[in-house]
Amino acid sequence: MNAIKEAHYNLGIAYLEAGQYNRAVPEFESAIKLDPNFIGAHCALCRAYLQQDELENAGVAIRAALKLDANHQPALLLCGMITDAYYDQGKTYLDDRSYTEAVAAFQKAVALDTDLRNGSQAPESEKTHLHVHLGAAYIGMKAYPQAIEALERALTQDADLVDAHYHLGYAYVEQGEHDKAIPHLERVIVIAPHLKRAHYHLARAYRASGNLKAATAAVTEALRLDANYQPAHELANIMNQAPFIKTK
Predict the structure, then answer these.
(1) Residue 247: pLDDT above 90?
(2) Contacts 24+ apart (CB under 8 A), 26-33
(3) What integer is the mean pLDDT of 189-205?
(4) Around 161, how many Cα atoms within 13 Å sit in the side-chain half-sphere?
(5) Helices then strands (H, E): number in the chain?
(6) pTM of the full predicted structure?
(7) Which stretches of the chain are assigned E, i.e. beta strand?
(8) pLDDT category, 224, cuts 50, 70, 90?
(9) b vs e for 181-211, b when ≥16 Cβ sit within 10 Å of the residue's Cβ?
(10) CB 237 within 8 A of CB 229
């Protein structure tokens, strides 16, 4: 049986190296059927699927490999490659404003990144912005509670992520939780004082919380940074006409 298993595996490798990935897959599957603990075949099957951009099947194959050995370096490297592929896919969807698809891709990247971290000898993930992008995609869907959860998770990994603080502040403003928004937007301004959108949303939060003086200062700074910034002009006009609003 070992000879047959090895024959299927070696033929699969030959197909893989020849770029005939669809022919490699059944060979690796046959080897695994004969020996479910054949970790090399699981990894090779993952490679074949990955070359065909079949990320879902590649993920199934690599999870099977990691279940056999959570510290198997070839499996960990492949897991990282699939994570990167989902991450890049999610960013493309996000840029295209296909938010539902972006969320799905980022969620799969998060799940694989978790598997990668669970290996005791796994390298540290470099995707520090993964949860930030997931949060941004949720914001695009107006799913603010889910966005807040993802962005808070991002800040546990890096407390100085400007994008995480900005998106979190924005999400809290949209949720009507203005007091929670203010410290995040203020943190953004400390790190990136030229970000006009942060000043604008900070002005919204201060106005909604009843602090007209701080709101005026924030919207004035937004307009100083960009005199043609239309949202800030509109907010300034509203504040001049009706400076106080009912807060939640």
Answers:
(1) no
(2) 31/5, 31/6, 32/64
(3) 97
(4) 24
(5) 13, 0
(6) 0.85
(7) none
(8) very high
(9) bbebbbbbbeeeeebbbbbbbbbbbbbbbeb
(10) no
SS3 13: helix
Structural domain boundaries of the chain? 1-99, 128-248
CATH hierarchy code of domain 1-99: 1.25.40.10
The residues near 215 (Cβ < 8 Å, ≥ 6 apart) are 203, 204, 206, 207, 239
Give the CATH architecture of domain 128-248.
Answer: Alpha Horseshoe (1.25)
Number of Cβ within a 10 Å radius of residue 148: 21
Residues 23-27, mean pLDDT to the nearest whole number = 97
Same fold, 1-99 and 128-248: yes
Helix (H, G, I), strand (E, B) or coil at 72: coil
Question: Which residues, 6+ apart, have CB-to-CB distance to 200 below 8 Å?
Answer: 218, 219, 222, 229, 231, 232, 235
- How does residue 122 score in pLDDT terms, banded at 50, 70 and 90? very low
| CA distances, 12 to each of 24, 32, 95, 116, 120 (Å) | 4, 12, 37, 26, 30
Radius of gyration of the chain (CA): 25
CA distances from 202 to 2, 143, 176, 232 (A): 67, 21, 13, 11
Residue 92: both structure tokens together: 């493309």
